[in-house]
Amino acid sequence: MVTPALHVRNLGGLLGAEPSWGWRADGELLCAHGRILAIGEGVGAALHELERDGEQVAVLDAAGLTAVPGLIDGHVHPVAGAVSVVPPGHGWTDTYLNAGVTAMVSAGELTFPGFSSAELTPEAATRLAAHSAWAFGNIAAPPRVYAGTLLAVPGMDRECFRQVAEAGGKCVKYIYYPFAGRRWEDEVAAYGKWADEFGLVTKMHAGGTSYQGHSLEADADLVAAVAPRVLAHANGGPIPMDDAALAAIVERTDCRIELILGGNLRVLRDLVGMLRDRGELHRITVGTDTPGGNGTMPRGPLQVIAAIAGLGGVDAATALRCGTANVAEAHGIPGGALAEGRPADLLLVGPVRGSAHPTAADALEAGEIVGVGAVVSGGSVAALPGRYTPPPAVLPTLETT
Length: 401
Known about the structure:
This protein is an alpha/beta fold. It has twelve helices and 22 strands. Helices cover about 30% and strands about 25% of the residues.
């Protein structure tokens, strides 16, 4: 089946990535072959070329809504397809897609049936990550799930990292590694070297223990020594480090600071303020730490973005970047930005019907979520409208030829 190109017209503007990140007045864009082919003035010529080549073009009338990049959830715990074990259920990935999440990154397949953090061996961790990366890599339906996070345990060798990367894994995570009471510096340094060699991003569990009760509890010195690329759920998963430790990590390291809805929202506000004042908002990434003890949170990324803007005093364009381009850049994955040649993952959004705010940006900066009128994944309309936000004041329509 040939997927038609998609002409999105009658936009009320868009959040573009080039020549710089910010709001643009462009009224249309064109998607083809899974990519953004043209934006604004270049659409007419590109559309003419497609039609000359006999390609089908579907038309999505945005009805004045604003186009923003598809959201990326930087912290999920997938098991198999859309199955959730904790809490039990099915279909969670589709609900996230309908709330605007077009991609997500695994922080470990921790609820896989038979998984035991107390009995995790190098072989078991490697096989779980490689299998998950392979399995999710073969699922074509949106959203894209970048699974296969290698859980670091003592005794791993270079081959563990190679196997996971070859299968498509993206991350290595410190959550069960026993730092206390043993010499670990040389081994962790080797793990960091192998992760860099194979393009794996190092992540580290932050805050109190997870629901299974076996995760590490790190302080600022340990985080600085391990030097992860991403500090997972820095505002708590579910509880954070103390304020002094988090301030020290912000000041002493350059790691990405991941924020989630299920953590401490006061700490979220404070971390955003620290990074804002330092001119380092590019370090913020967004996740949900779900499915898990917090259940599933389809609107979680959108609500964190609204909290970053409304509680943290951050402009809407930058807050949206925290949940899109920042997540993509931190994990080395495509997407997260609207620009020619980028993946055609985008949302049409506007203030929720009944909002007192005239634009999506105004609503976010007031701390409100926005309504998702359409979700486009890989250049195809995946939701019209999104079913897990209240509707915006107007709704787009799809025409096919």
